[in-house]
Every structure is written in structure tokens, then in C-alpha cells.
Design goal:
By secondary structure, this protein is an alpha+beta fold. Helix content is 51%, strand content 18%. It is built from 7 helices and 10 strands. The strands form 3 sheets. The protein has a 5-stranded antiparallel β-sheet with strand order 4-3-2-1-5. Strands 7-9-8 form a 3-stranded antiparallel β-sheet, with helices on one face. It is rod-shaped, with a radius of gyration of 34 Å.
């Protein structure tokens, strides 16, 4: 059984024999800290000049600092008499095991970098994929956050996004509204009224130009499609405003919005 006094004696002897080497190693580590900070600042300024995404700048800056410090740490350990080759071999084996244990995390990281560099979508755009949809609120290295109209959030792992079919609506969306008018109504007047409503609504974009026209002839009405463009945050409120304005204006101008009607004839019934 090894006594604690024996361990203490060995440590004392080690510090006596390698005291200068240890002090030199500590000095190398301190120099490494300053050099790593300086290299990180230089890398950050260079990345900012090239206008890369904040997440990429942060990751690359940290990697630069870690790499520089790791080089100085290896030099310091060698100065202290530590065998570097077995240490590096052990780190390599541990790294392989860690990579297998963190496959999903690394997959999200790689996918996040892919999204940031290729930019299939950006913050503020409205996207739909994997059965979920929403306005992109945040793109991080590991996940993407989508915001719904009710302020709820959907967190999507980045590895689920890359390679999937993605519908990107951009920062504007086209509303798909329709209204039915009676067959004997003045269609030109109805279309002109709808165009005036869209022109007066500040949330409706003037470019692209809204599309308004007869889309189908239904059983009980002539269906007029209303297809204006709005910014993503205004989508739902603009829908309600346009629909309410159509009802009010049609009522004032006597344009009838008919109820669904069916005609039933009874044949062979005794009177």
C-alpha cells in the first residue's frame, strides 16, 4: 500500500528536479492565453469585414482561440516533461468515442453551418417544411426557431432541415381570398370595389400588383378571387381587414353575396 508520505515526497522531488521547467511551462500557458485572445480578436475583425453571419463569426473566433491555446498547451506540457505522443494518442481515441456519442449534436452543427453559408432561408422569411411552418425567428448553429402567428415557437433541429423539401415564401405572402356575388350583380362594379379596398389598405403591397378577377362559376354565385400580397407579419390581420371591408362596401353598394341555394323538384307526387 502506497503511503501518502511517499506520494508527497515524490511530488517534492519532482518539483525540485523540474522546478524551472514547470515555471517555464506555466509561463508558456500564460503567453498562450494572451496569444489566443489576440488571435481571436484578429479573426473576429476579419470575419466582420467579410460580413459573415454572427453565429459563424462566433464559432470561428472560438475555434481560433482554442487552436492557438492548444498549441501553447502542448508546448507547455512538453517543457514540463510530459510525454506528448501517448497523450495525443489518448486524446485521439477519446475524440473518436466522443464523436460517436455526439453524432446528433455534430450533425446539427454541420447542418447549421450549411444553412448559414448556403442561405436557403434567412431570418424574417416565412417557410414551411416537415409539416411545420412559421416565420424564421432565429437561426443558430444547432437549431432553427419558427414563430407562429399566436407567438408560439417551433424549434427544428438543423439536421432535420438539410436535405428536406423546403417551401420558402420569403418575407411577403400572397393571401388567397374569394367572395361570391349573385349572377345578376354588376361584376365590373364588384371587381372595381375590391380593387379600391386593396388600394386603400396600407398593409396590402402595391408591388407585386394584387390580382382580382372571376375564378369560377359556382352553382349559386360568381366567385371572384382576391390575391393581394402582404408582409409576413401582416398576413392574418390583413385578411380580416380586407374581408370586413368587402362585406361593408358590398352592402353599401347593393352588391349581393348570395347564400348557397338548391332547387328540389318532386316528380309524381299527388297534389
Amino acid at each position: 500500500m502506497i503511503k501518502s508520505s511517499d506520494i508527497t515526497d515524490k511530488l517534492i522531488m519532482y518539483f525540485i528536479e523540474h522546478g524551472m521547467q514547470i515555471l517555464t511551462g506555466i509561463g508558456i500557458l500564460i503567453a498562450g492565453l494572451f496569444c489566443a485572445r489576440w488571435a481571436g480578436n484578429v479573426a473576429r475583425r476579419w470575419l466582420e469585414k467579410h460580413k459573415l453571419e454572427p453565429q459563424v463569426r462566433q464559432l470561428m473566433t472560438r475555434l481560433m482561440r482554442l487552436t492557438v491555446f492548444a498549441v501553447f498547451a502542448v508546448m507547455a506540457l512538453g517543457q514540463m516533461g510530459v510525454q506528448i505522443t501517448p497523450l495525443l494518442a489518448g486524446v485521439g481515441v477519446a475524440g473518436v468515442g466522443l464523436s460517436f456519442a455526439m453524432q446528433s449534436v455534430l450533425g446539427n452543427l454541420v447542418a447549421g453551418l450549411n444553412i448559414i453559408f448556403t442561405k436557403p432561408f434567412t431570418v424574417g422569411e416565412y417557410i414551411e417544411l416537415l409539416g411545420v411552418y412559421g416565420q424564421v425567428q432565429e437561426i443558430s448553429l444547432f437549431s432553427t426557431i419558427l414563430l407562429h402567428a399566436d407567438n408560439s415557437r417551433v424549434v427544428v433541429p438543423n439536421r432535420k432541415i438539410v436535405g428536406e423539401i423546403l417551401h420558402n415564401y420569403g418575407k411577403i405572402r400572397q393571401m388567397n381570398l374569394s367572395v361570391g356575388v349573385a349572377y345578376d350583380a354588376d361584376i365590373r362594379s364588384a371587381i372595381a370595389t375590391i380593387k379600391a379596398i386593396l388600394d386603400q389598405n396600407p398593409k396590402v403591397l402595391k408591388d407585386p400588383v394584387p390580382a382580382v378577377g372571376v375564378s369560377s362559376l359556382a352553382d349559386s354565385s360568381v366567385v371572384i378571387s382576391v390575391l393581394p400580397w402582404v408582409a409576413v407579419p401582416d398576413y392574418f390581420i390583413a385578411q380580416t381587414e380586407v374581408n370586413e371591408a368587402i362585406i361593408e362596401q358590398f352592402s353599401q353598394k347593393g352588391i349581393c353575396i348570395p347564400f348557397p341555394q338548391q332547387e328540389i323538384r318532386l316528380i309524381g307526387r299527388d297534389r
